[in-house]
Amino acid sequence: SQQGEEDPQALSIQEGENATMNCSYKTSINNLQWYRQNSGRGLVHLILIRSNEREKHSGRLRVTLDTSKKSSSLLITASRAADTASYFCATVLSGAGSYQLTFGKGTKLSVIP
Amino acid sequence: DAGITQSPRHKVTETGTPVTLRCHQTENHRYMYWYRQDPGHGLRLIHYSYGVKDTDKGEVSDGYSVSRSKTEDFLLTLESATSSQTSVYFCAISDREASADTQYFGPGTRLTVL
Fold it and tell me: What is the mean pLDDT of residues A77-81?
């Protein structure tokens, strides 16, 4: 069963706008990770946020984590056409299962030039 | 793709035939993973390895077996392929367990079972 669920499933914005994607999960986690997948390619890691962290930044990316609500958000600022891709959140469960990443179904982002 | 190759990249096979997919890494990472990606399901873990000859099942392991005789190679075998195993298969590697590290993905293998 899916641990993480992204919302929305699809998002279309104009270049230069900000894009926000959300991820909800069900059980306690060790960390949460965001990945990007360009069409026909493998996944690329974007950012990892641990359960004791609330916010992380990496370039134009900002990730927040609210463990009380079991949710995370990924914000891409000043989007570019090259940001067009699918974005996945993945969780690592606390305790047993630390070997495993559990992925959501993804948000498909389209950035229109 | 972080020194990860998958072979073949595309394969078409018939129901009932055995199929082996290979993942090869040049990073000397300890952990290796096989996922499948299907529309509407995201990525699901099939099997993973935490060292040479050390493997374990993931979420969707039925119908699949794996082997890891060398650090750099992780093989995924479909003993008797079925149409439900038509999918895109991704290999991933990490230097430490998922609780401490990110994973690096290969380019994928598109498998079609007729």
Answer: 97
